[in-house]
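Write out the 3D structure for:
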Amino acid sequence: MTGSEKETQTLLTIEEQVGVRKRRQVTGTVRASTFSHEREQALEADLSMETLEVERVPIGRFVDGPIPDRQDGDTTVISVIEEVATVEVRLKLVEEVRITRRTASRKMTDHVTLRRQEVVIEQEPSLDTPVT
């Protein structure tokens, strides 16, 4: 160390610490009690009961598409559908066969031999018959 530098030292002398402690101490007591009082009172109320009636109506016909649910008075109508695979036989015109009759005429020249038979009957005079 040089003379111009001063040496500093710190020494711990006293340190204070705080601690908190709690303890319970009964200073008095309290007692709580409940009492119920009863009395009768007439009560009127309108009660209603609702029941549902389920009716299944078989239909069994084919439709073009889904039918939406509908309300018919107090009745809700729900249509139940199912997909059914069907085989359909239909006639398909494949082709037409057209047959046309045509008549044509033309002149023809040819030499032919024609034959004709003729029967000649001759009657000879009988011997009993006089000749005139």
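The longest strand covers residues 70-72.
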